[in-house]
Design goal:
about 45% helix; alpha+beta; five-stranded antiparallel sheet
């Protein structure tokens, strides 16, 4: 099972956060998942993120932390913590742009990151509930609807294979033509600096 349970500092110890990474997602699967989001089907309450716009684990987990913290402090700007994760990836407060740029796109998203924040209250996390409220149920639910997709470890090395730096990362975070970046000749160092600037932009948006 390639479903990872992650721990974030300063998040309540009982809060379970699960992440998975799927490649080769079919057009029909992405269409189905986006449709369930639009209809607000509670069984499909996940953060579905287009992996081509994600730089690294640190980039992704920065958004997850911001969203979980917003939920804990009753300061969500969207219907739930999962949609909040998606908009937390943006450098500004344009919610529709964030959904379009970082969220799943029907027929287009073939590399998909899924984040599930499990409920903490006993009634919501009842093992007998038909909703995917345990790691086992979440994995079974995802693989049922992502048949044919390749479950992949969520590592920086695997993410690097799908990141679209030119058309997405540099464009979405307004990093084109930045002198400090253009002066860096080593590509690895340049991408590390872009990661730092992206996470900083996300953090400043929260102020």
């Amino acid at each position: 099972m390639t479903l990872e349970k992650i721990h974030l500092d300063l998040v309540a110890p009982g809060q379970e956060i699960l992440v998975a990474f799927f490649r080769d997602v079919s057009a029909s699967a992405s269409e189905l998942l986006q449709k369930q989001l639009f209809t607000r089907n509670p069984a499909f309450e996940y953060a579905f993120i287009d992996a081509t716009s994600i730089i690294s684990r640190a980039h992704l987990l920065s958004a997850v932390f911001n969203a979980v913290n917003a939920a804990a402090t009753d300061s969500l700007r969207t219907p739930n913590v999962h949609s909040e994760i998606v908009i937390s990836l943006g450098p500004n407060n344009n919610i529709s742009d964030a959904y379009r740029r970082w969220g799943i796109q029907a027929g287009k998203t073939s590399n998909l990151i899924v984040v599930k924040v499990l409920p903490t209250t006993s009634s919501e996390s009842d093992p007998s509930s038909p909703l995917p409220s345990t790691p086992e149920k979440v994995w079974a639910h995802l693989t049922e609807h992502l048949q044919g997709a390749t479950a992949t470890p969520l590592t920086d090395e695997e993410l690097a294979k799908t990141t679209d730096w030119a058309a997405k990362v540099r464009k979405y975070y307004k990093l084109n033509g930045v002198p400090a970046l253009d002066a860096i000749k080593d590509e690895v160092a340049k991408r590390k600096e872009m990661e730092r600037m992206v996470i900083m932009a996300m953090a400043l948006r929260e102020l």
